[in-house]
């Protein structure tokens, strides 16, 4: 249930996302980044080219070819969309080549989970973007991305889990920001989302927002799987919030 999820998010649109989905033949490996903010580092670090230069201790055989970002964005419209260039430090450039607004997702916002439970110009919007990465180390590559400006917990509980989605990679880095949840609940859904590789900075512990999420969304409860670390990068390379590890979900 990978392509089905993307068709569901596309709704009845006949734009660039549907054209892409109708044409793609290879299996879809979706990476989901809850609480993504404006962090496009996963597209660099999870690429096949990065793995070739920096091999993991266990051979990586699965790489994402589609990204889904989710984040309740309690600010004015997504600043990265005001210009095609999202990021450029002279070594790595991130830009969007095309964009399409998809049908809205008006999911619940809970004041016990998020700090700003009010509607704003981004809330509920869903965008499809074609992202281009240009790196002086890795060359040039592109990824399709869906960004849903929604609460992560409701998105998982009401969309991903009921659809029995297959999410090959889940990213848990600097989760929550100014929210009330550490995202510890993500550990409970790894197996049910068929996650193969879990990328995390290790900052998950039970906070008030996690407790509220368990009360509101019962299907976020569950058993944590065993995992083996296959790669570690230093905190300052990505999160400044702790070393980031790649973990095989067993």
How much of the polypeptide forms β-strand, as a percent range? Answer: 25-35%
Strand order of the largest sheet: 3-4-5-6-2-1-7-8-10-9
Count of spatially separate domains: 1
Fraction in helix: 10-25%
- Helix-strand pattern: HHEHHEEEEEHEHEHEE
The radius of gyration is 17 Å
User: Any low-confidence stretches, pLDDT <50, length ≥5?
Assistant: none
Mean pLDDT: 91
Question: Could you say which structural class the secondary elements and strand pairing correspond to?
Answer: alpha/beta
How many E-type strands? 10
Net shape: globular
Care to describe what's here?
It is a single chain. Helix content is 20%, strand content 26%. The protein is α/β, with parallel strands linked by helices. It has one domain. The mean pLDDT is 91.
Question: What is this entry, summarized?
Answer:
It contains 7 helices and 10 strands.
Topology:
Blueprint: H1 3-10, H2 16-23, E1 30-34, H3 41-45, H4 48-53, E2 66-70, E3 85-88, E4 92-102, E5 126-135, E6 139-148, H5 152-160, E7 169-172, H6 186-189, E8 197-200, H7 208-216, E9 227-233, E10 244-249
Parallel strand pairs: 1-2, 1-7, 2-6, 7-8
Antiparallel strand pairs: 3-4, 4-5, 5-6, 8-10, 9-10
Short key terms for the protein model shown above:
alpha/beta; 250 residues
